[in-house]
């Protein structure tokens, strides 16, 4: 039962990370009233919760921010090539404060239900602490990675040491000095944690099920001259970013590996490896993710680097990915990741053929061995993409929940709108572009803005994606995925295909056509008067 009913607003927004803040700006421009709910006690979203040691972006800092506020961008202190988590939070706080956004946000308030009323075409949203509010529009900015996946190991509660889930990290620093630490998981998160904790723990044991192609990030501080040059380059940076396949501030390689010989492949891959970060994939060969020979060469190149860096040959071999192509799982960025295994206090344990059986009061047990720890860190991923909204108890037409619908058929037109859920726009819903999130978010919020303006102009009270248009978008996502080599990674459980959570139906949960093509599809939809939506 609600304990308090808030006055009706035009739009309820859930989340105050990049998506929620950008939406506040949009709704202000449209002159719409709003109520924003945020579970955390500050802005930041993903960057509020993921405060584990070593957390930082792996997109260049000057494109991991908003383009809409040019003034803030041009005076912002981009300290490093990749922004550390506290600095991303600082940026988002600055955006919220500069634009006086906090007045719209109720912090420490978790939404626990949303119900569409077909008679009034309005949503009623409820919160865990007993608030209720009605609105015409419901816009969610929950991100792709808001629901942690923690494997249900028997005995997890019996552990007498400290245990942490990376995406629920405490605000107080955790001291690892003099302690025996376990990290479970070697995705992008695990790799960042391992590099940091390995430097301070008495001993770190890494439990790896699937090795990844960790690319060297080559992070560095940005000097005043680099910052000045950047500030003069606003248009160019964002032009490149919004047109780049993965929304990175890079040019396409304009080179096909299929057209060069093995020696040239090697030369260009070496240059990409030296440039660091995703330059290895996106500034080397434009066909790396679609051409088997090029991908094989790029994968083998990384394996050779691992064998050259890691001194113990057995450990190096365990770190070499051999069961999926590069790109078949999302490659993480490391800064001295492989070098970490040369430290005497760091041990790698493969649990691929010897899985973790249970957590014990003193540590954990695999099928063949038992280990003792003071601290266990779970870097075991997320119920990604569909998980956050499916967990919010959203009831659409006919009282069908979005969790039920997406368990069977996780499709959303242009990655924002699912048939059966009118007036609900999910920023970063399923089948949104798989690309660096802030530019995708800005694109999707602009799309929602055009759609809302169109609906208001038409006097429409109900806006719903048609089944046909959502189906066609979903099929396009399938077609693009199947034109790449990425499905070869399915056996290694990529989260972006919904394959990492036991019991979840794997499917094409993202659009891989690139941000530039996505923006063209958005423009076509808007310029055509939104034919994929029914307005009434
Ligand atoms: O999650 P993951 P993540 N026993 O799903 C392992 C973004 N991100 O949080 O691969 C043993 O990739 C699992 O093993 P396997 C980025 O988009 C961005 O690391 O399934 N291990 C895997 O190793 C990224 O891709 C940034 O065999 C188990 C790990 O847990 C996304 O978040 C930083 C297990 C989960 O890896 C997700 O990355 C961090 C089990 N029972 C994250 N169950 C930046 O921008 C799971 N695992 C820098």
TrEMBL record:
Keywords: FAD, Flavoprotein, Monooxygenase, NADP, Oxidoreductase. Gene3D superfamilies: FAD/NAD(P)-binding domain. It comes from the Bacteria. Transmembrane segments: none annotated. GO terms for molecular function: monooxygenase activity. Belongs to the FAD-binding monooxygenase family. This is Cyclohexanone monooxygenase.
């Amino acid at each position: 039962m609600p304990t308090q009913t808030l006055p009706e607003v035009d739009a309820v927004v859930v989340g105050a990370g990049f998506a929620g803040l950008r939406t506040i700006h949009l709704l202000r421009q449209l002159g719409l009233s709003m109520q924003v709910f945020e579970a955390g006690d500050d802005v930041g979203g993903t960057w509020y919760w993921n405060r584990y040691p070593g957390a930082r972006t792996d997109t260049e800092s000057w494109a991991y921010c908003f383009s809409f506020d040019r003034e803030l961008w041009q005076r912002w202190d981009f300290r490093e090539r990749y922004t550390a988590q506290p600095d991303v939070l600082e940026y988002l706080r600055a955006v919220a404060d500069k634009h006086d956004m906090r007045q719209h946000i109720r912090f420490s308030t978790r939404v626990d239900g949303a119900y569409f009323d077909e008679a009034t075409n309005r949503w009623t949203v409820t919160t865990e602490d007993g608030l209720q509010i009605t609105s015409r529009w419901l816009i969610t900015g929950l991100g792709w990675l808001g629901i942690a996946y923690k494997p249900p190991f028997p005995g997890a509660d019996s552990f007498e040491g400290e245990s942490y889930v990376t995406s629920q990290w405490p605000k107080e620093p955790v001291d690892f000095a003099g302690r025996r630490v376990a990290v479970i998981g070697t995705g992008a998160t695990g790799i960042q944690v391992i590099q940091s904790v390995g430097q301070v723990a008495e001993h770190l044991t890494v439990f790896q099920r699937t090795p990844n192609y960790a690319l060297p990030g080559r992070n560095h501080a940005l000097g005043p001259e680099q910052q000045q040059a950047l500030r003069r380059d606003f248009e160019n940076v964002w032009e490149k970013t919004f047109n780049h396949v993965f929304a990175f501030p890079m040019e396409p390689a304009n080179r096909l590996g299929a057209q060069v010989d093995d020696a040239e492949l090697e030369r260009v891959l070496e240059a990409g490896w030296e440039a660091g970060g995703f330059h290895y994939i996106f500034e080397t060969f434009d066909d790396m993710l679609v051409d088997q020979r090029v991908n094989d060469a790029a994968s083998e190149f990384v394996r050779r680097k691992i064998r050259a860096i890691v001194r113990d040959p057995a450990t190096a071999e365990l770190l070499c990915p051999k069961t999926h192509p590069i790109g078949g799982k999302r490659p993480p960025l490391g800064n001295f990741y492989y070098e970490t295994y040369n430290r005497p206090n760091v041990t790698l344990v493969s649990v691929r053929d010897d899985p973790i059986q249970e957590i014990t009061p003193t540590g954990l047990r695999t099928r063949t061995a038992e280990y003792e720890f003071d601290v266990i860190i779970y870097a075991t991923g997320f119920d990604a993409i569909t998980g956050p909204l499916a967990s919010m108890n959203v009831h659409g037409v006919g009282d069908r929940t979005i969790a039920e619908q997406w368990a069977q058929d996780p499709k959303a037109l242009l990655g924002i709108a699912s048939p059966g859920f009118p007036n609900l726009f999910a920023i970063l819903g399923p089948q949104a572009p798989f690309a660096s999130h802030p530019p995708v978010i800005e694109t999707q919020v602009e799309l929602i803005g055009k759609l809302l303006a169109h609906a208001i102009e038409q006097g429409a009270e109900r806006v719903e994606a048609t089944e046909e248009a959502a189906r066609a978008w979903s099929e396009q996502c399938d077609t693009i995925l199947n034109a790449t080599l990425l499905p070869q990674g399915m056996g290694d459980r990529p989260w972006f295909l919904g394959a990492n959570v036991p019991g979840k139906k794997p499917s094409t949960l993202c659009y891989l056509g690139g941000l530039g093509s996505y923006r063209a599809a958005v423009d076509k939809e808007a310029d055509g008067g939104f034919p994929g939506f029914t307005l009434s």
